[in-house]
Design a protein that fits this description.
Elements: H1 2-9, H2 13-29, H3 33-48, H4 52-68, H5 75-88, H6 92-109, H7 115-127, H8 131-147, H9 151-165, H10 174-177, H11 192-200
Helix pairs in contact: 1-2, 2-3, 3-4, 3-5, 4-5, 5-6, 5-7, 6-7, 7-8, 7-9, 8-9, 9-11
């Protein structure tokens, strides 16, 4: 599951899908409800850019299966994946509802490793209706990622922030720059996420 999760955070749907499909076959064959649910959430995100309705349906089913075991772990990430699909298709209200669920799960369990990703997607959604407020949320996402040592997530949030701020005269904070050196990122240099970041940060 962690390998598919890494592909999700690297924004690699095809690779995530291939892993999640294998994981789903194994989980269902062995009747592992939580892993079956987890595989469905990852597969739902992976197909969501092309098939948003099917992707969201699979994500909801996966979350229900996951929670049926009593597990509350990973819910912030699962809900952020729903929000990410909504962002891709400009379903703002539904996306923000998913973000609310992610925040509620974080507040309940204090599981915050995905917080910067939740905030990044929230900022992008909010910016569709209020650019200034969206930039504020993306700034928070950068701060969160840097404070957690999550350089990859910091780069993603900063990239979105720079794209929004072009023409506004706003620049990245000086204290962020040492944390956002693309040359110091150890892996994923071939991904679209890092290629885009390298071009604008």
């Amino acid at each position: 599951m962690n390998l598919a999760l890494a592909r999700r955070l690297r924004n690699e749907p095809a690779e995530c899908r291939a892993i999640a499909e294998r994981m789903l076959i194994l989980a269902d064959d062995r009747r592992l409800a939580s892993w079956s649910g987890g595989a469905r959430t990852l597969l739902g995100w992976a197909i969501g850019s092309d098939l948003p309705d099917e992707g969201l349906r699979m994500l909801r089913d996966g979350i229900n299966r996951w929670r049926s075991t009593g597990s509350e772990l990973h819910l912030p990430h699962f809900y952020s994946s729903m929000a990410d699909i909504c962002l891709q298709h400009r379903w703002i209200d539904e996306g923000l509802m998913a973000i609310e669920n992610a925040v509620e799960a974080m507040d309940k369990t204090d599981e915050r490793w995905a917080q910067a990703e939740v905030e990044r997607i929230q900022g992008c959604l909010v910016a569709k209706v209020d650019v200034t407020r969206g930039m504020e949320v993306l700034t928070k996402a950068c701060d969160t990622a840097i404070s957690q040592g999550a350089r990859w997530l910091a780069v993603r949030a900063a990239t979105e922030l720079v794209k929004l701020s072009k023409g506004s005269g706003q620049e990245l904070r000086a204290e962020w720059r040492s944390q956002l050196r693309i040359s110091e990122i150890a892996e994923g240099l071939e991904t679209s996420v890092i290629r885009e970041a390298a071009a604008i940060l």
